[in-house]
Amino acid sequence: MPTQTPERTARPRRYLMCRPTYFTVDYAINPWMDPAQPTDTALAVRQWERLYWLYRRLGHTVELIDPVPGLPDMVYAANGATVLDGRALVATFRYPERAAESEAYQAWFRSHGYREVQRAGHVNEGEGDHLVAGGRVLAGTGFRTSRAAHAEAGEFFGVPVVGLTLVDPRFYHLDTALAVLADDHVMYYPEAFDADSRAVLRTLYPDALLADRADAEVFGLNAVSDGRRVLLPEAAKHLAGRLVEHGYQPVPVDVSELLKGGGGAKCCTLELRPA
Ligand code: ARG
Predict the structure, then answer these.
(1) Average pLDDT over the chain, rounded to whole?
(2) Ligand 1 center to residue 6 CA distance, Å?
(3) Is 267 a catalytic residue?
(4) CA distances (Å), 188 to each of 59, 175, 200, 201, in order?
(5) Number of domains present in the structure of the chain
(6) How far is the CA of 1 from the centre of ligand 1 (A)?
(7) Is residue 8, in this structure, part of any structural domain at all?
C-alpha cells in the first residue's frame, strides 16, 4: 500500500466496441467457455449497453463496429487490433473460429480514415495481448499471440515492446492477468506469468498493485482505466478496495453473461489512440 495516496488524473478516451447481437458460446477456445451451458444473448446485450453508456457518461467517445452473424466472439473488440498513434495493426487470430473477424476490423479501420492499417503477419490477438503503457507496449505470449508478433508490433509502432510469458491457461490473454492503470502504473496477478516475466514486471513497476488469485479468478484484472476511474467486474470487491488505496475510483460493472465467453469489460473495449 502506498504511504501517501497518489493523485490520479483521468484522460478522455476513444473506444471501439461491438454489440453482442450474435453472442453465444458454441465452441470452446479457452477454459471459461462451455458450449453445454446456456447463454442469454439478450442479457449480454443489456450488460454491454450499460457498459457503453457508462463510458459515455464518464466523458469518453465510443465508436461502433457492426457485428457479423456467425462471429459470436466479435463482441470482444479488444482482440480486433492494436491502435497507437493513429496506426492500426489488425489481428491475425490463433483459432479458425475467429479468423474472419480480421477482415471486418480491417475494413472498419480502412473506412474510418486510418491511413496506416496493417494486418499482422503473425498470430496477434490485438489489445488482448498488447497493452500500451506510456511509451511502451507490454505484450503477452504463451497461449495466443506469438513471440514473433511482438517484434512486428515494435517495428510497426516504433516503440519498445516488453514480452511477457503467460503460463496459466485460464489467463490466456495478457488483459486477463494485467491491467494498465496509468501510463506508469499497472496491476497484475503474478502467478499468471513465468519467473522471468515476473522479474521484468517487478523491475519495471516496483509499486505495482499485485492482485491475488481470488481477484484474478473473477476477472478483476480485465479492467479498463482512464487514469483515475477503473471499470472492473462487480465481483472483484477486494481488488476494488485495493484500487481505492492506490488513489483510483473503482467503477463496478456487471458483465456476467460475457464472462461465459471468457471476456469482461476490457475484452469488449478497444482503445483508439489518435496520431
Ligand atoms: N472467447 C474469446 C476467445 O477465446 C474471448 C476473448 C477475450 N478477449 C480478451 N481480450 N481477453 O478468444
Answers:
(1) 97
(2) 32
(3) yes
(4) 26, 9, 12, 9
(5) 1
(6) 31
(7) no
